[in-house]
Amino acid sequence: MPHTMHLTQDELCQLRTLQDQLLELTKSELHADDCDNIRQIMAQAVDSDALQRNAFGMSPLVVDVQTALVVAQEIGLTRAAILGVLLDGLVLVGMLDIGQVQRLFGEEVAVIVRGLNNVRSLYQKNPSVQSENFRGLLLSFAEDMRVILILIANRLCLMRQIKDSDNDEARRSVSMEAAYLYAPLAHKLGLYKVKSELEDLSLKYLEHDAYYMIKEKLNATKKSRDAYIEQFIGPVRERLEAAGLKFHMKGRTKSIHSIWQKMKKQRCGFEGIYDLFAIRVILDSAPDREKQDCWQVFSIVTDMYQSNPKRMRDWLSVPKSNGYESLHITVLGPEKKWVEVQIRTERMDEIAERGLAAHWRYKGVKGGEAGVESWLQNIREALEAGDDLQLMDQFRMDLYEDEVFVFTPKGDLFKLPKGATVLDFAYAIHTKVGNKCTGGRIGGRMVTLRQELQSGDQVEIMTHQNQVPKQDWLSVAKTGRARSKIRQALKEQAARQAAFAKEELERKLKNRKMDIDEATLMHTMNRLGYKVVTDFYVALADGTLDINRALDAYAHQQRYDRGEIAPAQTQSAENFSMPTEAQQVATKSGDVLVIDENLRGVDFTLARCCHPVYGDEVFGFVTAGGGIKIHRVNCPNAAAMRSRFGYRILKARWAGKGGSQYAITLRVVGQDDLGIVNNITSIISKDEKILLRSISIDSQDGLFSGTLTILLDDTSRLKLLVQKLANVKGVKEVVRL
Asked: Is the terminal CB of the chain with fewer CB neighbours within 10 Å at N or C?
């Protein structure tokens, strides 16, 4: 466990030496008073009891200065990143705050420190770092790309110094993070040297025997390998010099981790790996001759040795997305051994070795994996601009703007598209959770299932056993998975409703002493306008089709089939006349049905599926039996009726004043506090124009969910009631169903 401890004399000496090295390296980058301010704050930290050693017993001050050296020397970052590294640990222990950092060192340094603090809070949520989701969330939380580079540098420093630690568990943990998280990030950023060292050190700590076996084999074969490299290089060097090229050549042994991966992939021993090294030709070329010189070397080498076209890699014409430029060829060298030759210029080699930290700009990058791969797509423009470090400092990261990363209460991490809601998250967890979702809790605050999620949210999904998916959920859900599961659930609900409606229809047919004949029933459905059996029964279940109309239509069809009713006479074509243009316009536009309690001559009823109330925006739907159902415009079935039976839709509006009592259902969700239900019913009972027909309350996990069926006369009274109920202390949501 970390524990408080003052620095030892050896650590103090080491700290002073490291500070002097850092000052010498960065004196051209730092401002005049930066060094004095840093020294003063660090001196106070040394004398305080606030500092804690890490799990390996190392002083955080020493580690921070070592990290700053790597950041400056091996990665090439500038003032803001260097100071950010040195100040982060001091802010952590309360020696100063972000505001003081901003006043003393500027906003840019404060951004770095704030990003490091954000990442620390991310780790405290303890998600699995071995996931692409965590990598994306890390990039999102870091805010500034230099924070990621600092994290990589810090992990490299740590890995270099934990060889002799007794804490094997902590060493394995940081090694696994290095292998699964930081090495891939270093690779994407073009930090190939750092990436290789992280991979080798991880292998050293995680698979000790394999690492030292390969290392010993490499040491044993070094002499013969060097001799072969010289045998290959000699003739090539002569030809290149004769061509007048300026260059130098070197042989590079593959990393231990790379060799181990090849051994596992090819399922062979060390002796079965033939391409243990690569020859690198590095040209000293003018910028306008780089490609020309590289291709000239390619021509010379392939003239001397047979090449393998399948293993040629041209990252010269089209550089890698992280800016890597080089020409790789594999040729058959002396002793019939395959040799990889890498051809590049000094500039390209510097980028390949030191990475691209000083050379890119990351402005306006889109989200997703494609966004990660295109961070450095403008690398060449940045290089040509000349002022590379200012380009690095000028822009802030805009990665993963199309994605959000959220946690479950247990710390499991999920990636969702930007704009995803609590409902999407529920379905991402499990279909059953989504189907029963009533809302959620984010940071202790109750939210509806429509609430949009933000990266870093910790979301607890609230469910209820009586909850079922609704048609309007399709407009709430943003992910394809959620939409698919909702549609599937709605179809299953429709099938269940259809089964119940079928049972009811058959029971009522028996009550009327009518035989059930499938052919007669199918003819009845067709006459009523239904081509799909399920649609017919669903219409019966939701009230779109009145069951008595269906029974009457069935009886009529039965009498027709028996010949008791004569078929309608076919109208002669001679007597048919086309409707006038005025009649066609009238038919298309249609008159508005004015709904009034005194309306006579029109058979209309209020739909049970949406329970319209006087004042609601409504439309009429002509049923197969000739009657009219009045629906709210936002009825769950409105879209289906308009798309399938648009010719039956009538414009409608209310007339006069509301005088009738309409039944509507409200859903109320709130905290299960003592007396809250009494407060709700009291509000309803005080209004003489509102009658409470029924109430159903269910309580679970400190929340109650109730449905109230009430009678009232218009929407204005309904709006006032909803407002009053919403203002009751503890009530979270009031929704009309």
From this structure: N
